[in-house]
Amino acid sequence: MFGLRTVRVFSVVLHCLATANAIPNNDSPSHDLVARAFPPAPDLTIASWIWTTTAGISGVPPGTSTFRLTFKPDPTLPLANISVAISADNAYNFYFNGTLYGSGYDWQSPNIWTINNVPSTAPWVFSIVATNYALGLDDFSVNPAGMIASFVASSASLQRSYTWFTGQPGNTWKATDLVLENFYSPTLDDSAWPPAVFETVHGGGPWGFLPPPNAACRIN
Q1: From CA 220, how far away is CA 217, in angstroms rounded?
Q2: Does pTM surpass 0.85?
Q3: DSSP tag of 180
Q4: pLDDT for 127-171, tens place per residue?
Q5: Is residue 55 a contact partner of residue 108, using CB atoms and an 8 Å limit?
Q6: N or C: which end of the chain has fewer CB within 10 A?
């Protein structure tokens, strides 16, 4: 049984850890072949802001929410590199297959996290915990909250890349305000979690247009 906990202080990633898991199934309509410079960088301009409630864009109380997305890649595909661009108002931790890979603390400065040499022998589980901070030490009034992310999986041997992103039809993020212990575990059953709620496209809402994300860490 998983217990509940509150997560508001984010861990600093002291080093990069390599772990396993490849590019999405080529037959899946939700993944589009990217015809541009190889490999392309994940692009937040095609993504949308999401949260656990439609009120996120206008204002919710300070607190923490968790998001999960599971892919089942084609097991016949070779190793791939996965790059992830993320921003969250106000901060986030990013997990891949149960391992913490990155943290961000400034929604106006999105990050890119890259995981190299990922096999396709098991599903990929992407988990993000995002915290909406209070406006001040004594001010716990509602304020905007949101998360936006874009992903690219590339195969050097095939010279192919696939991209997907928050808000894309067919890629349903699960989201909840209950922060379960081990919410990032690949074996956690999230079937009862409700889907994340669309807030606005990139450039909309209180966030406007974000600058290009910075490459924060490369994992070999």
Answers
A1: 10
A2: no
A3: B
A4: 999 999 998 777 788 999 999 999 999 988 888 888 999 999 888
A5: no
A6: N
In this structure, the dihedral spanned by the alpha carbons of residues 69, 112, 117 and 77, taken in order and rounded to 10 degrees, is 50
Contact (CB, 8 A) for 119 and 21: yes
Task: Tell me the pLDDT band of 44, cut-offs 50, 70 and 90.
Answer: very high
Residue 179 falls inside a structural domain = yes
Report CA Rg, the chain: 17
Count: domains in the chain: 1
142-179 as b/e, with b when 16 or more CB fall inside 10 Å? ebbbbbbbbbbbbbeeeebbbbbbbbbeebebbbbeeb
| C-alpha to C-alpha distances, 181 to 7, 65, 115, 125, 129, nearest whole angstrom | 10, 13, 24, 16, 12
Residue type, 122: A
Which residue intervals of the chain are DSSP H helices?
none
Domain extent at residue 75: 32-219
Name the nearest CA neighbour of 129 among 190, 65, 199: 65
* Mean pLDDT for all residues in the chain: 83
pLDDT at position 197, please? Answer: 96
Q: Is residue 15 in some structural domain? A: no
**Residue 208 token pair:** 């406007």
